[in-house]
């Protein structure tokens, strides 16, 4: 699922709902950089965490 994520897409971290909705900045080699509304920029290991797409 993470392989389909592209810059600009909105996502949520399944274990950190308090971070709010984040926007994918990049997805390179399974490392996904997301700018979350309430947490800031975070790099996610896509092999360990499956981000949830948000459709608004």
Topology:
Blueprint: E1 10-12, E2 22-28, E3 31-36, E4 40-45, E5 52-53
Antiparallel strand pairs: 1-2, 1-5, 2-3, 3-4
Task: Describe what this molecule looks like in 3D.
This protein is mostly beta strands. It has one domain (2-53): SH3 type barrels (Roll), CATH 2.30.30. A 5-stranded antiparallel beta sheet has the order 4-3-2-1-5, with no helix packed on it. The protein starts with 9 loop residues before the first strand and ends with a strand. It is 0% helix and 43% strand. It has strands at residues 10-12, 22-28, 31-36, 40-45, 52-53. Strand 3 (31-36) and strand 4 (40-45) form a beta hairpin. It is built from no helices and 5 strands.
Helix/sheet category: mainly beta
Provide the CATH top-level class.
Mainly Beta
Question: What does the average pLDDT come to?
Answer: 96
The helix count comes to: 0
Tell me, briefly, the overall form. Answer: globular
Helix-strand pattern:
EEEEE
Poorly predicted regions: none
- Secondary structure: helix percent: under 10%
Distance between the termini: 18 Å
- Spatially, the strands of the biggest sheet line up as 4-3-2-1-5
